[in-house]
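Problem 3 from the worked examples.
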Amino acid sequence: MPCLLIADDHPLFRAALRSAAVDAVAALEVREADSLDGVLATLEREPDIDLVLLDLHMPGNHGLAGLAALRAQHPGVAVVVVSANDDPQVVRRALDHGAAGYLPKSAGLDELRDAIRSVLACEQWLPTNLRNSVARAPSSIRDTHLAARLASLSPQQFRVLTLVAEGLLNKQIADRLNVQERTVKAHLTAIFDRLGVRNRTQASVVLRELELSDPARRL
């Protein structure tokens, strides 16, 4: 029985996604989360979840960083990005970072059903009106290399990187992850090597490159 995780901080939008999803796939199990921490916790408890519908701008997620976290920590889970941002270059970046599909929040219910069916069938999905423009949008060599470097991190190393980007010190990271400080230092050495950076500041910049503005919050 396929299992879907809907990740969005708006209850009404989650309800609409749930309704469309259960109409699209027979005997579908559905889970919900309203933050990136909630998504990661749910996937830790239920690693057999097949598909995540991920809002780019939910609490704890800043642009493509959440997508990168899922690809690094749970590479077997398919991710469809759900966003109010339908800029073809943003869509291209999401695909380059491992998204299996991209669903604008303006999409209709039929498109949502089609997206879920397609991705569960191991196909990539984009809405019809974006396919040509995304195909013309060039992949960034920097994004391609960044995605590969982030994917080379272990799940624990990615967690350490995220906490470094939040400004936590080694001891604070050790306490948060319930490990010894020397373990954190060993992770940092590996992180710096795999990302091709020299220090914590440069490592933090790597994650900040994945940040995107939220069209829904523009005035």
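Problem 4, a separate protein:
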Amino acid sequence: MIAITRSRAGINRARDYLELTKPKVVALLVLTAWVGMMLAVPRLPDLTTLMAATLGIGLLSAAAAAINHVVDKRIDAQMARTYSRPVAKGRVSAAEATGFAFSLALVGFVLLYVAVNALTAWLTLASLFGYAVVYTMFLKRATPQNIVIGGLAGAMPPLLGWTAITGEIHSHALLLVMIIFAWTPPHFWALAIHRRDDYAKVNMPMLPVTHGIEFTKSVICLYTVLLFIVCLMPYLVGMSGAIYLVGSAVLNLRFMQYAWKLKFNADASTAMATFKFSIVHLMVLFLLLLVDHYFKVSPIYVS
């Protein structure tokens, strides 16, 4: 009986540490990085480099997420969406979470530096710093444009994937960064509308709190138009073909439809539905880039 109790406690402990890493968020970041790796070369990249880069980027992303739990401990405890997080609830101490985050960051950085290349290692570390320190500690509490400015850190994974394979920064990789950069505000502000009262309670200057829900809805509409235009760029510069163009147009028109409903015909579930669709939008968009890439070039390994 004691052994069973200890086993359950160990499983719960492991779950808490897994939750610190925000695995769903990290999975989306890693997917975009992985697509960046695949698009960097006409054929399949070296598998050893691909696996090392995927793991290293994932570990540093997880470290940034864990630091976010520590920094936001006080406000997380007061918000309905986050009050049960491990650090906010005290199931994992701030010191333990910090040590865990630094361990993940160290292993991830060393792996990228040794097994991939120094450029990717330093860029990924800079992204961690941008999210965990610049955004979480300062911008998030300072300006309603926090997610616009801080969103650059979250938009970096495709560039990290690209540099992992090629060792250089390319304009096509920067286009992928631009897509996520334009996608982030309408994605996050839809959630912020749904959780507006939570953010107001903790005095967090999110756009729906500082400028009102109706203004935020209007800005979301404008950003979905901007996103549509930015998503055309890979096709216009010859980076992608017809498969991506058609799929991207369908996805972005659907996103605009959600934004339109949110602005002019919203019900209690529209903001969260828009937020959830935005996640599907980004996943499918990047998978379309991948399919389009290999439709034009037969996937055979680089010798």
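Solution to problem 4. Residues 270-296 form the longest helix (27 residues). The mean pLDDT is 91.
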